[in-house]
Design brief:
The chain contains 8 helices and 7 strands; from the N terminus they run H-H-H-H-H-H-E-E-E-E-E-E-E-H-H. It is α+β, with helices and mostly antiparallel strands. The chain has 2 domains: 3-64, lambda repressor-like DNA-binding domains (434 Repressor (Amino-terminal Domain)), CATH 1.10.260; 114-244, no CATH class. A 7-stranded antiparallel sheet has the order 1-2-3-4-5-6-7, with helices on one face. Helix 1 crosses helix 3 and helix 2 (18-25) packs across helix 3 (29-37). InterPro entries: Cro/C1-type_HTH, Lambda_DNA-bd_dom_sf.
Amino acid sequence: MNIGDKIKEQRLKKELTQEQLSELLNVSRSTVSSWEVGRNYPDLETIVAISDLFGISLDNLLREDTEMTKDLSKKIRWNSYYKRILLFIGVLVLIYTGFNGKLRMDEQRYLTNLTAHSWKQDDYKDSGSYTLQEDGILYATYIMEPGVNPIPLKEYQPGVIARKDNLVIKVKAGNKQYVVISEANDPKVTHEAIVEVDKAGNLSKSESSWSDEKKQSVNAYLKKYQKEYVDLLKNTVHKRQEIVD
């Protein structure tokens, strides 16, 4: 005997109509009818309510109805699966919310430090751009607003670009230092490149695609302006630290 037959049997014993049973279980009459003819099954919560209403154990109610048992087991497994998914999503939301909150605090700290060290917003660019002119050096930085980070859940730290005469350098997150060798900055340049350098202004690594001529040209250019680059890099690292500290 399946569960639908047992529900009907117990309903008739209690001398209840389908309408009366539906009201007691807070479902529609057609739902009770569907159970009794085997078109579908009650959910777990309703099965417990039926067990209590008729005073029979869940074991007796479900015994012999293998299809119902399989369906119920499947629903329990899916219910557990969905709970794990919801828990995982909840954890991700908490992480993202906390991370985004940290980004907002970082942004506010950067902006406060910029103001304290006399940086000015660059009216010719977007709202996140700031510049500082000091001792013949033009410094520029950009403060990214929370929510526009191109790499979600990765901390953003501003870098600083500095220009003095025809020399341009960049200091990025982690105080990684780069020299920009460009004909646009210096018409005498024969081989353009953006290269990572050490604190002494020496080339840290070259691209495998470079020719020997380009490698020699880049090293010669760095050597020619080594003292200027070292001073510029040192000043720019200091300016960046003033922003992020």
